[in-house]
């Protein structure tokens, strides 16, 4: 049954990711803003869920797995980041490729830290 929940949550996460991409950013953008945006949001969301929701509330393990592994993991995408970086390199955009990797990693870590701190502040109130 866990596989079904992870699959359903994963379907929702991937549909949301696709929706963010088509609603917020043009498909012909030079820089992959869509993937960067969902990865940064996902980094914050998983950290916040882990620190606040999963720690403080009595949520069943099945639900935690479905949300974290299913929804958030399918909303974010490392494989697309990798492919888009290679495409930037192949198109001679080495500075943009480097910037994309740097912002993705440092931004993801920063958003995770922000998610943890936001959850901590909420817990103290």
Automatic annotation (TrEMBL):
GO terms for biological process: cellular detoxification of fluoride. InterPro entries: FluC (IPR003691). One of its GO terms (molecular function) is fluoride channel activity. GO terms for cellular component: plasma membrane. The chain crosses the membrane at residues 29-49, 61-81, 93-116. It is a multi-pass membrane protein. Keywords: Cell membrane, Ion channel, Ion transport, Membrane, Transmembrane, Transmembrane helix, Transport. It holds the Pfam family CRCB. It comes from the Bacteria. It catalyses: fluoride(in) = fluoride(out). It is found in: Cell membrane. PANTHER family: FLUORIDE EXPORT PROTEIN 1-RELATED. Fluoride-specific ion channel. Important for reducing fluoride concentration in the cell, thus reducing its toxicity. Belongs to the fluoride channel Fluc/FEX (TC 1.A.43) family. This is Fluoride-specific ion channel FluC. It comes from Sediminibacillus albus.
């Amino acid at each position: 049954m866990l596989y079904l929940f992870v699959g359903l949550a994963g379907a929702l996460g991937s549909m949301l990711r696709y929706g963010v991409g088509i609603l917020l950013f043009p498909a012909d953008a030079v820089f992959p803003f869509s993937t960067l945006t969902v990865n940064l949001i996902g980094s914050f969301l998983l950290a916040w869920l882990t620190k606040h929701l999963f720690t403080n509330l009595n949520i069943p393990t099945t639900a935690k797995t479905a949300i974290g592994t299913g929804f958030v993991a399918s909303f974010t995408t490392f494989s697309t980041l990798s492919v888009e970086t290679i495409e930037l390199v192949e198109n001679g955009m080495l500075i943009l490729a480097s910037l994309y990797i740097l912002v993705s990693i440092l931004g993801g870590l920063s958003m995770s830290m922000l998610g943890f701190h936001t959850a901590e502040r909420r817990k103290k109130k």
